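$ run holo --ligand "copper (II) ion" --emit tokens
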Amino acid sequence: MTTRRTTLGVQGMTCNHCRETVQTILSAMPGVEKASVDLENARAEVVHADTVTGTQMADAVSNAGFEATPESSADADT
Ligand SMILES: [Cu+2]
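-- output --
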């Protein structure tokens, strides 16, 4: 199994509570190892198994009322 590092753009986060919500959603997804959400830069960086895609992660975040788009993805050495 390959580990990947994917960056998502996340629009609509206005405070730390939003940041935590997005982080909780991503962290709870099967295959996600680590999610860190940056409120100021409107981005989330996720380390995850290649069984989950950037689109799936963006969809999960978007379902909670934010606007997420996969931006880049690369193999990660862990
Ligand atoms: Cu908020």
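-- notes --
The chain has a mean pLDDT of 96.
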